Amino acid sequence: MEKFEFYNPTKLLFGKGQLSSLKKEIPAYGKRVLLLYGGGSMKKSGLYDKVIHELKEIGATVVELGGVEPNPRLTTVKKGINLIKENQLDFILAVGGGSVLDCAKAIAAGVPYDGDVWDIVLKKVKASSNSVPIGTVLTLAATGSEMNGNSVITNWEENEKKSFNSIHVYPRFSILDPELTFSVPRDQTVYGIVDIMSHVFEQYFHASSHAPLQERIGEAILRTVIETAPKLVNDLNNYEYREVMLLNGTLALNGLTAMGVKTDWATHYIEHAVSAVHDIPHGGGLAILFPRWMEHVAAVRPEKVAQLGVRVFDLDPAGKTDTQLAAEAIESLVKFWTSIGAPTKLSDYGIDDKEIELMTERAMLADQIGNYVPLSNEDVRKILRNSL
Amino acid sequence: MEKFEFYNPTKLLFGKGQLSSLKKEIPAYGKRVLLLYGGGSMKKSGLYDKVIHELKEIGATVVELGGVEPNPRLTTVKKGINLIKENQLDFILAVGGGSVLDCAKAIAAGVPYDGDVWDIVLKKVKASSNSVPIGTVLTLAATGSEMNGNSVITNWEENEKKSFNSIHVYPRFSILDPELTFSVPRDQTVYGIVDIMSHVFEQYFHASSHAPLQERIGEAILRTVIETAPKLVNDLNNYEYREVMLLNGTLALNGLTAMGVKTDWATHYIEHAVSAVHDIPHGGGLAILFPRWMEHVAAVRPEKVAQLGVRVFDLDPAGKTDTQLAAEAIESLVKFWTSIGAPTKLSDYGIDDKEIELMTERAMLADQIGNYVPLSNEDVRKILRNSL
Question: Roughly what angle, to the nearest 10 degrees, separates helices B322-339 and B303-311?
Fold first, then answer.
């Protein structure tokens, strides 16, 4: 393990009916609220009316910003910052999935900064402790954004998708009611499942030694996802399956399994490059890229992929090398993701090799990316080609 | 799962050399410090001097209270409260194991309360948000007190050992340096290991349905403890083993595996009664009582004990009933605890049946205790008799 600091001050309010906690939680931060949300599903499902009702009960002044994109855009972030400044708002209530939450974090950090908020996303400037406080109502099990300080923002004009992290943009509270995720359609549910598993992978494939507990907790999450997912995708209104998946998503990226380890994240960087250029769903991109990334790293360091196979996919290790086990583990993963309806090739989204160079360039945040096996420009190009 | 709230604002500072974080963390809370510690081992090991050095560097005013007992006593809590009031201190730095930390929490909660602090321990009065802020330097992997709001206090005059919990007494930060646990002798190390496993059990044997992730995380902790413990007890100065055990202890009781489940805790109530009457080590008492508790509940609900056997002790379930598996699981647990040197009978501490009635009475905090299988007065008496 490495030396580490862990501090996660988000209050989770989990379960049926937790929406009514809004009136208890918000007043501590003020009553002038920016209500941030995504598409129309929130209005169709009736959630919008319920949230407005809660806000009215505490006499809140509400300014709305809807239409946050699935890959939230810098232009939207700037709109939010302006609305808060113009209306002197003191709290952001983000209602939606990870994209709305990520957008809220960038807005929160951008308000007290005089320069361009993109500087913060590019990590040139740190978010300050004067960032606007955020509360969230989550409607999708996927990103874990409800209990961390991560935010991924797309600058569409520049084809760039970048992320920042700050303790000052952790949600003060997050409301997780499994029923609010019933309306998520099957394909989005699948993308969320892939995203959750990918978050575990990015931390499981770390570059540190001797972190057995963190790895076992990662395996616990993966096994629970794998057990629940096939039932959930065929029974989207099942409370218990939604409930388990929601908690899986939160614990997969709240810092728990990253304690004391150098995490990887190369596959996320590559996916961000792909979806910055082609605007495909993040979870879909990950389902395509992760098996190819695993193949690539297993050629050098098969042991952790083999461990995944034995401990999560119940492979029998008797008489097999790590290389054989790793190959079987990747096969098991692809089989599982295919079984729930995830894509397997970039061509499933009509992506061909035309933009490989641009995507490779965008993925390379440094000369090398990732830690489990650091990837060069050439490695990334190869992984992308193998994903076509 | 049940509806739940999870909020754990303790900042963990984990790893070699983290003691130097004291000077960064304390000033936010003030510089008039009550330094609370236990026996002389802290002075012998040199830790005392290092802490004083850190406090001097920030120009802190330090008032000391040493000699906190292994089962911390109400009288000591009251001394601490008086010292804070007399000297107008604004921060408690607790250096030691769970008993010192628990004592700090009761002091912290007692200061702003005009009545007798025992009212707070008895849960007649709630700890207030004006409780004195606490920071901790942990020297023993066991109670998890470094990342929760629990405090267990003994009123020796009344033979009562009681506990309270409050969000207002969570440590603001906890420093966990595995090297600071090197000086823990073998027997205390073993008691800590039993305590950690028992904390997982109290939450694993819950009375709720459908909490697969929480159970798997509990199993992850148990497997990691079982893998590490035999190596640790034979190599007490091994950094990596101490490191893993320290993290096991923290995650075993920081609320993670209790999310959304009705936990049990009957065995702890019984052990508190035993050690309130006989002043034996808490971990020793648990090692004796837990197998007998498991036998008792397995007669009614063997399924979770059986699951423990299969998933943690790798029992082969083929052709076996849950009752058979449960019996084998308990046998495996006793074998494991015996192998690392834990006691198995109350008579190992010279305890006979004389005080069974008093202990039974003290354990019964209500007409029934525990949730997985609620225990009556008679059940507790029987478990105690079986433990002699």
Answer: 50
Q: What digits encode the pLDDT tens for the residues A45-70? A: 999 999 999 999 999 999 999 999 98
Mean pLDDT of all residues belonging to chain B: 97
Say how far apart CA B13 and CA B2 lie, in whole Å: 31
CA B261 – CA B241 distance, rounded (Å): 30
Say if the Cβ atoms of A15 and B4 lie within 8 Å.
yes
Q: Would strands A160-165 and A150-155 be described as parallel, antiparallel, or unpaired?
A: antiparallel
Residue type for position B375: L
- pLDDT at position A40: 82
Residues 6+ apart with CB under 8 A from A33: A26, A55, A60, A61, A62, A63, A89, A90, A91, A92, A93
Q: Which of A148, A167, A196, A213 to mutate to test the interface with B (most CBs of B within 10 A)?
A: A213
Nearest CB among B1, B5, B224 relative to A213 is that of B224
What residues contact B358, with CB distance under 8 A and at least 6 apart? Answer: B159, B273, B277
Q: Averaged over B119-141, what is the pLDDT?
A: 97
Mind listing the domains of chain B with CATH numbers?
A: 11-181 (3.40.50.1970), 186-386 (1.20.1090.10)
DSSP secondary structure letter of residue B100: H
CA distance B84 to B81: 5
A178, A137 in Cβ contact below 8 A?
no
Closest chain A C-alpha to B174 CA, distance in angstroms: 10
Is residue A38 scored above 90 in pLDDT?
yes
Length of chain B (residues)? 388
For residue A242 the two structure tokens come to 């939604």
Q: What is the average pLDDT across A1-25?
A: 98
Long-range CB contacts for residues B323-332, cutoff 8 Å, separation at least 24:
B323/B298, B326/B294, B326/B298, B326/B302, B327/B298, B329/B294, B329/B305, B330/B291, B330/B294, B330/B295, B330/B298, B330/B305
Q: Are A221 and A257 in contact (CB under 8 A)?
A: yes
- The nearest alpha carbon in chain B to A246 belongs to B213
By mean pLDDT, which of A199-203, A252-256, B42-46, B322-326 is the weakest?
B42-46
Q: Report the DSSP beta bridge partners of residue B37.
A: B95
Inter-residue long-range contacts of B350-354, CB under 8 Å, 24+ positions, other chains counted? B351/B274, B351/B278, B351/B280, B351/B388, B352/B388, B353/B385, B353/B388
State the Cα–Cα distance between residues A295 and A297, nearest whole angstrom.
6
**Measured distance CA(B195)–CA(B166) in Å, rounded:** 21
The DSSP call for residue A40 is: T
Residue B74: helix, strand or coil by DSSP? helix
Flag if A216 and B228 touch (Cβ within 8 Å).
no
Least confident range from A12-26, A313-327, B151-165: namely B151-165
Which residues on B lie below 8 Å from A15 (Cβ)?
A: 1-4, 260
B131-147 average pLDDT score: 97
Chain B residues inside the 8 Å CB shell of A174:
none
Q: How many CB pairs under 8 A join A and B?
A: 113
